[in-house]
Amino acid sequence: MSESSAKELFPEGLDTSFQGVRERMLDSLESSGLLSDRTPGSVLRTLVETFSREMATFYTALTLAHDSGYLETAQGPALDKVVAMLGVTRARAGRLTGKVALARATPAPEDIIIPAGLRVSGPAVMVTIKGKSEPITPTLEVAEQAVLRRGERRVLVVAQETQDHDLAAIPSLAPGALNQLPRPLLGVETVSNPDPILRGGADEPDESLRARARVALRAGEQATRESIEAAVRAQGVQQVTVEEPQDGPAGQLIVRISDPGFERDVARQEAVRGAIRATKAAGVRASVIYLSTVYFAPEIIVEVEDEQMTAEHPDWPALRAEIDAGVRRYVGGLGAGSKILLDKLRATALAIPKVRSVSFGAQTALGPLPEGTTDLTQILNIATDRLTEGVGWALEAQETPAIHPTLGAAIYLKAVSRARLNVAVSMQNNSLPLATLQESVRSALTAWFNTLPPDASVTPPQRTLKQSSAESALKDKTLTKAVKAMQLVHEHTGETEYITSSTDAVVGDEERFIIGRITVTVESA
Description:
The protein has 525 residues and is α+β, with helices and mostly antiparallel strands. It folds into 5 domains: 65 residues, no CATH class; 113 residues, no CATH class; 70 residues, 2-Layer Sandwich (GMP Synthetase, Chain A, domain 3); 120 residues, no CATH class; 106 residues, no CATH class. It is 28% helix and 28% strand. The chain contains 11 helices and 28 strands. Strands 1, 3, 6, 8, 9 and 10 form a 6-stranded antiparallel sheet that branches. The protein has a 4-stranded mixed sheet with strand order 26-25-23-28, with helices on one face. Strands 11-12-13 form a 3-stranded mixed sheet, with helices on one face. A hairpin with a 4-residue loop joins β25 and β26. α2 packs across α3. The radius of gyration is 37 Å and the shape is elongated.
């Protein structure tokens, strides 16, 4: 007997086991003062234990009978009888069963529910039935609910042959034979079976049968908010809420749909209205509101840790796709009337270990697509007035943000401008290896540069390199006696500056400062 069943059927805390019944009876008899011999083997103990065993058996049978009447607890033949009331029968051994892959080209912006009962099919297969060759369309349905997780592109589910047709003439299905969704599921772009679909050798398990029965149960409910929401989702809608206004007249419902681009899809709108009419009760008025989709087109400029990485580097496409997936997850998680925050976008990209810094280009845009076009470039430069003090973009209450499903974010690799410092120094006589001396100079110069204050009076800010300052830092941290020469090379322009006692050089904040060639001369004693 399960704990949950006992709590429903018997008073809370009642122990219906053999030991529990026996102890209660002995305690009751002893407290009455009539009988008190609890010794094992005594007449009283033997009679009580005999009765307790029969009573415990009765309790167990009663619990099993109780459990057999409910979808969540019935098992085996009892479950078959429960689901039969919903018109569902167990799939017996011999049905086509196998794994089906549901996928999309880009990472999922949010969790996508794959409902039990979702049907997949493929082109008709010619089979021989009663001596005649006839085309039969193979149709399978998802056995148990699954989830395509946010950020993932593919999920494998178990599908089994439907019970609508006798497809016994199809012995198996080759890989790729299932490639269609009779009823499209928003967020899923392709379906296929990577492996052959074969006939199973076992009956459908209880959990799979329960999952299909739950789908049938929800489909049978009418006139509730949940049933209306389920009917709308059955049309492929992912983001829907059904509300009953607290201050409005009775019998009114508001159905809000915020799927990207839905406000422009006339055919799907009509399908949703038809589903609502077929589900709602008579006299109930359902107002459908299609939230306006506002497409966000960020221009993101990324600086990476790997100084050798260029746009042609083999690792760049994967890194760009990872950044794009993060941006899609963030924007996809925002609701109507939200604000797209620059700091959140930046943090999303900076969470990737290879990314060093993130900035946003002037072409970052936000806006609806003009009527009659699907070209996202037509919304560029129209949303600068929405940028609130450099913090983010605010949306109206009836607007929901989305990243365009194909164009996505424009992500560029920042061209790194490097300023390379070459230096020649003389050192005191010592026996240290040359490599050790060079490394000490490199470390001291790097620490020295990091202490230089930037001059914010110019744009962009810059740091001034002085020979006297560098020489002082080297003498303090290394065995340097004097700086013989300093040369600063701006790699992006090829310009070379010589730093002397009378001539300084500057490094802009947009440049990455590196230590180049180090020449060490050790003076004799």
